[in-house]
Amino acid sequence: MELKWLEDFVCLAETLSFSRAAEMRHVSQPAFSRRIRQLEQWLGVTLINRAMVPADLTPEGRKFLPVAIDNIRLMQETRRALRPDSKEVARTVVFSSLHTLTLTFMPDWLQKLATIKGGLRSRIAPDRGGIEDNINTLVEKEADFFLTYSHPLVPILLDETRFPRRLIGKERLLPVCPASAGKMLDNALKTNTPLDYLSYGDYSFFGMALGRLFALLPTFERTVSHENTMSVSLKAMTLAGWGTVWLPESLVSDELETGTLVTASDDPAWILDLDICIYRLGGPSRPIVEAVWNTLS
Predict the structure, then answer these.
(1) What average pLDDT does the segment 228-239 reach?
(2) Nearest residue to 220 via CA among 257, 269, 254, 262
(3) Helices 29-43 and 3-15: crossing angle, nearest 10°?
């Protein structure tokens, strides 16, 4: 259960329009509809009669509406009561970020912000998974900034007047495998045999980027031995001998240096050069947020 599901439902109950409610909640209509269904699945009942135009609440939906409103109010009051003192809040910056960046990039990068007058206290918001859901943490004021990878194969189509962005780093996504297995990708291409492949799935950033990269390069058969959206978990799987995986270079630099892992191909075409970008919501914000943004310029 997420608070935003309740807020979505109340907004839909007010508008009785999926498209209008999605617009008011600053998400796409498919994402909004998915969240309403997640709420219904969690409750185990149907809240919305979708067969009617405009949509209407079911009897269960009408019963649940005041409960949802009360719970939103209660959670907001509880959050206000539990928040730390104003001085600590004033210097706290909340980052939404892809999980891998919190491990490989943020610790050193945050050192560059240490010169901000008055000091900086950072906090990571939970990774929501998809780019759109993470961007929505900015809209819902759950985060001040969003850090993500960027590549032309997976364009992030955002209005930069509403969501300004800055380039803050570079990364390379490399195909790697255990040294004992040799150049697994080159061998698979040469012998036309299936490659044991550790997959990010189809919908994560790396999964989409690799799917589009594979469509541009020589085809090869892949046998998925494991799927996980988290790079650090896939790293553990390749170290255990489960196959080839594309990983950020910064995540495997030690293993490449010691020879525990090797690149799975000598062809640089299989490497993705990535930008690391930071987004914020346009318009005025708290002084500490503006100080971070100005430091990045």
Answers:
(1) 95
(2) 269
(3) 110
